[in-house]
Design a protein that fits this description.
Blueprint: H1 3-10, H2 13-28, H3 36-49, E1 57-63, H4 70-76, H5 81-85, H6 89-95, E2 103-109, E3 112-119, E4 124-131, E5 134-141, E6 145-154, H7 159-167, H8 170-180, H9 186-189, E7 195-205, E8 208-221, E9 226-231, E10 237-238, E11 258-261, E12 268-269, E13 273-274, E14 281-284, E15 290-292, E16 297-304, E17 310-315, E18 320-330, E19 339-340, E20 345-349, E21 359-366, E22 369-371, H10 373-377, H11 386-413, E23 416-420, E24 423-426
Antiparallel strand pairs: 1-2, 2-3, 3-4, 4-5, 6-7, 7-8, 8-9, 9-10, 11-14, 12-13, 14-21, 15-20, 16-17, 16-19, 17-18, 18-20, 18-21, 21-22, 23-24
């Protein structure tokens, strides 16, 4: 199989586009700023004559190793360290957001790195690229497509294992268990023959599951009761009456003067295309202001962390963790492995690392993905109210109907057969795909 064809088959088009443009620029000196239609014409021409000079270019899929930093990645690939030290403070801060275990992609020509795409969350990635006078790096959006699925099944073994067996998706099984954790006792109440229906959205990148599933609604039908959970616009689950089912509540970690920088995934700029994301909330406060644990949990990191300076990271229940950065001082005794209670003092405000003034950079992560802390700090009431509640109740009833139809029709008339490439396949009696 020719190089071009095998490469295109392995890469999803949208993420490949960046690599293709850069590859043509580096190999054939073709201008970088090409439209898709211009690129398509050039690729057709190259396809006729063969991509002989680029045969040495190979793509690798790797996992970001525990403890690896961007600086170490640069050293490993013989990228001048000046490239890292010349990065803006914002870019260096983003480099500290790379998640261990995440999948990243590299393009090599021989032993020379031409391109790298390194995710920092589900929406943004670092693009490292070779250019005429060295290397460059910028934050760009992660390109993926999303598809909504409806899953319905009867419990045979355990809810977790049945979901994994049916979908091949451990994240979906884990998230649905966490979603029901506050309203269902799985050990006592969930029995063989109970039924569950889930409406969820799955991201796909390069033909594979990407990120965490987004559960929109679900019903768990037990012996005498059906438990419904409906996700609202604030990201939290509610029952059909609009009661908040989220018991996990964070508190603001300090007394602050103002929010100097809000959380942002990066807004589109009319000229630059995209600006850098800011994956946390910055609280401006006087130096030495006490910082307290936003929630109870276990300290998993306490020390120096690149551009974040003195940093503490706490792992909480339900897949959440909080990050406290640019601290002046970490309190004595705060170390990895220590269990802390909500409100426990962990250090003081400072400006260590890449910081222009005293403040706390507060990050919140759910299953490794950065989320807006403010949304979780503002949960102060248990029920929706007013027009917001009216809109939710209408939406909840719509989901209730879809879920009930899924349980009655799909379980009775469309037996679940199994999976192909981790996609759910439902078949009717005539063995026809219903997707």
């Amino acid at each position: 199989m020719c190089f071009l064809r095998s490469w295109c088959l392995k890469w999803h088009f949208c993420d490949s586009f960046t690599f293709l443009r850069s590859l043509l620029h580096s190999v054939f000196k073709i201008p970088y700023l090409l439209s898709f239609f211009q690129l398509r014409k050039i690729l057709c021409a190259i396809g006729i004559f063969g991509l002989c000079s680029a045969n040495a270019a190979t793509i690798q899929e790797s996992k970001w190793e525990q403890g690896q930093t961007l600086l170490m990645f640069f050293e490993k690939n013989a990228i001048p360290l000046k490239t890292y030290y010349d990065l803006t403070p914002e870019d260096k801060e983003l480099a500290d957001e790379i998640i261990s275990g995440s999948t990243y992609y590299t393009l090599y020509e021989g032993k020379t790195l031409l391109q790298a795409l390194i995710p920092i969350n589900e929406t943004s990635q670092l693009h490292v690229f070779k250019q005429k006078n060295g290397y460059g790096m910028r934050a760009i959006p992660v390109v993926y497509f999303a598809k909504e699925h409806t899953l319905a099944l009867s419990v045979d073994n355990s809810l977790y294992h049945d979901i994994v067996r049916s979908t091949g998706d451990n994240s979906l099984a884990n998230d649905i268990i966490q979603a029901y954790k506050s309203s269902v006792d799985f050990r006592r109440n969930v029995k063989k023959g109970n039924q569950i229906a889930i409406i969820y959205e799955r991201k796909y990148r390069l033909g594979k599951n990407f990120g965490s599933p987004h559960i929109k609604a679900s019903t768990l039908k037990l012996q005498n009761k059906s438990h419904y959970i409906i996700r609202h616009d604030d990201g939290h689950f509610y029952d059909l009456q609009g009661n908040n089912l989220t018991k996990y509540l964070l508190t603001t970690p300090l007394h602050y003067k103002r929010i100097s920088s809000h959380f942002s995934m990066g807004r589109k700029h009319p000229i630059l295309g995209y600006k850098r994301p800011h994956l946390g909330t910055d609280y401006a406060a006087p130096r030495h202001t006490p910082i307290r644990a936003s929630g109870s949990g276990r300290v998993i990191f306490a020390g120096r962390k690149g551009g974040y300076g003195n940093t503490v990271i706490i792992q909480h229940d339900n897949g959440y963790k909080t990050l406290y950065a640019h601290m002046h001082k970490i309190d004595k005794g705060i170390r990895a492995g220590l269990q802390v209670k909500q409100g426990k003092r962990i250090g003081t405000v400072g400006s260590t690392g890449l910081s222009t003034g005293p403040h706390l950079h507060f990050g919140l992560y759910r299953n490794g993905n950065a989320v807006n802390p403010i949304k979780y700090l503002k949960i102060a009431h248990s029920k929706l109210q007013g027009q917001e509640k009216k809109s939710f109740l209408i939406n909840a009833q719509n989901y209730k109907h879809i879920l009930n139809v899924a349980l009655t029709e799909e379980l009775q008339n469309a037996p679940f057969k199994g999976l192909q490439n981790t996609h759910i396949v439902y078949l009717n009696q005539n063995n026809k795909n219903l997707n």
